[in-house]
Amino acid sequence: MSMLVLLHLFALFLLVSLGFYVFVANPRNRAHQTFAAFIAFLALWTIKDLVFWNFQIETVSAIWGAAASFIIALLLQCALGVFAGVFPTDSPMPKKRAAVLFAPSLVLIPAAAFGLLWRQVGFVNNQFVIDLAPLAYVFVAYVYFVFGFGAIILFQKYRQYQGTQRGQQVGAILWAVIITGVLKTLANIGLPFFGIYELLPYSTIFVLPGVLIYAYAISNFKLFSLQTALDQFRLFPIAYKIALSIASVAILSFIIFQIPIVWWAFQDGMTFEAWRKYLVFSVISALVPNLLLVLLIVRTISRPLQKLTVAAVQVTNGDYGTEVDLRKSNDEIGLLADSFNEMSRKMADDIEQLRQLNEQLIRTEKLAAMGTLSAGLAHEVNNPLASISSLIQMMQAKNDLNNDTVEKMKLISTQINRITQVTRDMMDFARIRPAAKSSVEINQVISASLRLASFDKSFQKLNLKKIFAENLPPVFADHDQLQQVFLNLFLNARDAMPNGGELFIKTSASKAEITVEIADSGSGIAAENLKQIFDPFFTTKPAGKGTGLGLAVCYGIITAHGGRIEAAANETGGTTFFITLPTPAG
Fold first, then answer.
1. What Rg value do the Cα atoms of the chain yield, rounded?
2. Helices 165-185/203-218 angle, 10° precision
3. CATH class of the structural domain 325-432
4. Which end of the chain is flanked by fewer CB atoms within 10 Å, N or C?
5. Distance between CA atoms of 149 and 363, rounded to whole angstroms?
6. What is the pLDDT of residues 363-405, one digit of tens each?
7. How large is the greatest C-alpha to C-alpha distance in the chain, in angstroms?
8. What is the pTM of this model?
9. Alpha carbon 529 to chain centroid distance?
10. Model pLDDT for residues 295-333, shown as the tens digit of each residue
11. What fold characterizes domain 3-231?
């Protein structure tokens, strides 16, 4: 294999690799698209030179080679003209300007294809000779006109963006255009004009320095940087994977199958039987790499997309939070899977928050309805109770009652007082009154509530542990209402630990909120009851021990202050209440 063939193959490989690399980096960018078109035309030029200068077929080779040279040269300049119009702002090429600029090519390209640009072309004593017709000079002049037009546009943009990175990019491309134009003119026109054709076969090689500068500028001067290589490795586009798979399979199949088949089929000469063997076994051997390609594509694209589709259908059917279990990859499908999983998780979290908000709204509506009913009910019950209580007191004032009657009267008075207390709680629950809010220190409110609770003998049996955060910001709240909340929770903890236990109280601050944690080591609350404990008249205490209004009142007070109250079961037994209140800064 001659050195010229190796140089052409090297140039072809470099052009294809460079064009593919730059195009895939940003396939929607017009500059990258026109660069890919420019590289495609250069690759055609290289293939033309590879065949034309290394596998000559006398006059036939010279005719099509000359025609291809003229046509591809014009197409290269057209690509340059479009690039100059769209770079670096990625703006579309004006259609009217493009139509006027490229209109002559509609005549000149067919003229070149039909051989109207020369009188004679061919090889004389293995020396390429061409006798140009006058139309060829028109053709060349038009090619240089398009080239000059693109260069002028680039120079105007260089002056416009001078001093910026865009200006540096345009300046580098101008140098690439100048270098390429000078070398190509020298090899293809200047020296052949004086009958020197020796550099014509190497004209493709002369273009490579300009093309490298061209690609370097388009990629923001990151084409050869280590960071760019690492970024490309981090985000390895699926197009790269497919291209590498196809190239690898093609090369391996050529080495493993085609070379042995050619050697085996033509070892006795290029006979009809040899060609028959070659064609049959080439077709058979082509099935293996094609099946391998199908397997690679299915594994790379089809299977992950199928899993993504199934997961998307599950989410559509209401299975929020569904995640795609894919092998970690750094291509578009890997990023899509990670984004889908993140979206599904966020969707599940958002729906759970909406569900909780809906429960709070339902509870608030229920509290409002029960408050209205409680006010009316308490009023209706208190009036007859007051009459009954008066009659009992009149009867107790008599001295002729026996002991049994006196005891029954006391029992009746006790039950009347109990009913009165229930109706009073209902009235307090239903009464709408503006909170007397002021700046309140939460640690002081809790301490005051503990002092009140400590008068109870059963509460004194509890082992109290406190962790109060220092320098807590104040909250804007009603001191008495918050004290009512904490006192209610402390007494509930007492009832949950009749034989003593541990009561843990902790205050803390985070961002614009203050959190109070109250945990007991009592019997705890069943999981199915945790969602109902703030509902009016719901209680887990034995009959006669509670009204079921305490926690509902606490919930109403805390939510009216813009806070939250939640309950959770402890792992070691008992219940923990979390009270969160906003600070004025929040």
1. 45
2. 170
3. mainly alpha
4. N
5. 75
6. 666 655 555 666 666 767 777 877 787 888 788 777 777 878 8
7. 154
8. 0.51
9. 39
10. 767 667 777 778 888 888 888 888 888 888 877 766 677
11. Rhopdopsin 7-helix transmembrane proteins (1.20.1070)
